[in-house]
Amino acid sequence: TGPGEFWMQVDDSVVAQNMHETILEAMRAMSDEFRPRSKSQSSSNCSNPISVPLRRHHLNNPPPSQVGLTRRSRTESITATSPA
């Protein structure tokens, strides 16, 4: 429960998109299930807006589990070790 991050890495972008949508759908369903709203709460929310935290973007930052673990393709390994 509470805020957190979820990291995943897959080779296929279609698989990644489907996983993303499935996880979001499940999270929204759970959120609705655990946060029932009464009619009085819904109407009072108009006068008391809530603040929403900004979404953090990790453009070039690897997940914590991969810091220091860089993967090279086979061709990079071969060209890096081949004599000139």
UniProtKB/TrEMBL annotation:
Phosphoprotein among keywords: yes
Compositionally skewed regions (Low complexity) per UniProt: 39-51
Gene3D superfamilies, A to Z: Pleckstrin-homology domain (PH domain)/Phosphotyrosine-binding domain (PTB)
Keyword vocabulary terms for this entry: Phosphoprotein, Receptor, Repeat, Transducer
Region (Disordered): 31-84
GO MF, any single term: insulin receptor binding
Keyword Cell membrane set for record: no
GO biological processes: insulin receptor signaling pathway
PANTHER family, per database record: INSULIN RECEPTOR SUBSTRATE, INSULIN RECEPTOR SUBSTRATE 1
Name of the protein: Insulin receptor substrate 1
The species this protein was found in: Macaca mulatta (Rhesus macaque)
